[in-house]
C-alpha cells in the first residue's frame, strides 16, 4: 500500500522533500549557469514556497529541548522494526508523492544519484556507502512522525537559536526562546564543549546516526548526523560549541553537501545494474539486519 503524503495541518508539504527546493534556492549550485537558476526559481511555484514556510513555522515552534528528549526516549529503544538496509530502503520507497509521481525521484533514486556521484569522483567506499544510506532515517515518516520532526534544517536546542537558521523569526513561538535556561549564547552548554554534548533538533539525521554508530567510520557518522545542520556547515553559526575534532570532521560534512543537493538529475539510475556493487558494499560494513 502506498503511504501517500496527503497534506494536512501537521504535514503541510505535498512531498517530504519539498523543503530541499528551498535549500537549493538558498544555496544554489555555483556551477549552475544563471539562466538555469532563474528557471529553477520559476519552477518552484508559490504554493510550494508557502507550504515549506508553514512547515518551518511548525518545526521552529515545536522543536524544543524537551521535545528532543521525548523523541530520544521514544525512538532510541529501537523496538519498532528489524530490517536489513535493503528492506529499510524498500520500506522508505513506499513513501509516495501523490502530487507528482512522475516528476519526482523516489527515495532510492535520490540515494543512488548521491552515492554514484561520490563514486564517480573516486572517493573511498565508505563515503559512497554514506551517500547511499544517508536519508534512510526518513522511515520516521512511516512510523507516523510528522514532517517537521523528520526533515528540515537541524539546529542545536538548549541554547540560543541562531538568526542564521532559515526563517529565524518563527522561533519566537518556541517556548525555549523565552526560557532563561536555554536562551543565552551557550545555554546549558560550555564553550567548545563538542557537538557530541549538544542536543540537535530531532529528525532523520540524529535517528540514523544512532542506528549506524557502531558500524561506520567517524567521518561517515558526522555526515549522517549533521548533513542538515546548514546553519553550521554553510553559515558557521555554532563554531563556539565545537571542539577541534568537530572542526576537522566538518570538512567531510561540507564535502558531502553538494552531492546531496546538486545531484538530482531527471535521468534515473539503473537500479538492477548497480545493485551487485551496493550489495557487496553494504555487506562489507553493515550487519544483516539493523534495529529501527
Ligand atoms: Fe537528509
Ligand atoms: Fe538527501
UniProtKB/TrEMBL annotation:
- Compositional bias annotation for Basic and acidic residues: 23-39
Annotated Gene Ontology cellular component terms: cytoplasm
Cofactor(s) needed, names only, are: Fe cation
Q: Where in the cell is it found?
A: Cytoplasm
Molecular function GO labels: inositol oxygenase activity; iron ion binding
The family database entries (InterPro entries) matched by this protein are listed as: Inositol_oxygenase
User: What is one process in the GO biological process aspect for this record?
Assistant: inositol catabolic process
Where are the residues of the annotated region Disordered? 1-39
The protein's superkingdom reads: Bacteria
Keyword set, alphabetical order: Cytoplasm, Iron, Metal-binding, Oxidoreductase
Residue stretches of biased makeup (Polar residues): 1-14
Q: Sorted alphabetically, which Pfam families does this protein's record hold?
A: MIOX (PF05153)
Q: Which PANTHER family match?
A: INOSITOL OXYGENASE, MYOINOSITOL OXYGENASE
Name it.
Inositol oxygenase
Native source species: Neotamlana nanhaiensis
Starting at the broadest rank, the lineage of the source organism is: Bacteria, Pseudomonadati, Bacteroidota, Flavobacteriia, Flavobacteriales
Amino acid at each position: 500500500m502506498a503511504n501517500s503524503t496527503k497534506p494536512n495541518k501537521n504535514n503541510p508539504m505535498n512531498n517530504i522533500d519539498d523543503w530541499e527546493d528551498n535549500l537549493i534556492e538558498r544555496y544554489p549550485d555555483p556551477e549552475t549557469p544563471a539562466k538555469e537558476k532563474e528557471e529553477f526559481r520559476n519552477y518552484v511555484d508559490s504554493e510550494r514556497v508557502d507550504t515549506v514556510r508553514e512547515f518551518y513555522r511548525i518545526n521552529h515552534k515545536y522543536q524544543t529541548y524537551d521535545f528532543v528528549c521525548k523523541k530520544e526516549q521514544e525512538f532510541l529503544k529501537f523496538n519498532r522494526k528489524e530490517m536489513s538496509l535493503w528492506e529499510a530502503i524498500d520500506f522508505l520507497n513506499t513513501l509516495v508523492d501523490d502530487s507528482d509521481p512522475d516528476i519526482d525521484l523516489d527515495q532510492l533514486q535520490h540515494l543512488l544519484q548521491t552515492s554514484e556521484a561520490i563514486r564517480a569522483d573516486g572517493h573511498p567506499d565508505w563515503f559512497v556507502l554514506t551517500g547511499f544510506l544517508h536519508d534512510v532515517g526518513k522511515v520516521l515518516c512511516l512510523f507516523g512522525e510528522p514532517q517537521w520532526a523528520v526533515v528540515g534544517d537541524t539546529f542545536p536546542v538548549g541554547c540560543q537559536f541562531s538568526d542564521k537558521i532559515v526563517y529565524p523569526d518563527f522561533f519566537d513561538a518556541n517556548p525555549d526562546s523565552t526560557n532563561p535556561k536555554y536562551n543565552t549564547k551557550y545555554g546549558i552548554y560550555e564553550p567548545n564543549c563538542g557537538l557530541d554534548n549538544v542536543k540537535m533538533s530531532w529528525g532523520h539525521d540524529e535517528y540514523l546516526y544512532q542506528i549506524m554508530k557502531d558500524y561506520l567510520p567517524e567521518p561517515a557518522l558526522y555526515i549522517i548526523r549533521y548533513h542538515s545542520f546548514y546553519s553550521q556547515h554553510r553559515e558557521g553559526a555554532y563554531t563556539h560549541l565545537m571542539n577541534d575534532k568537530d572542526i576537522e570532521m566538518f570538512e567531510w560534512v561540507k564535502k558531502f553537501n553538494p552531492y546531496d543537493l546538486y545531484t538530482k538529475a531527471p535521468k534515473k539510475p539503473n537500479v538492477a545494474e548497480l545493485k551487485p556493487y551496493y550489495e557487496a558494499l553494504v555487506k562489507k560494513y553493515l550487519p544483516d539486519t539493523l534495529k529501527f
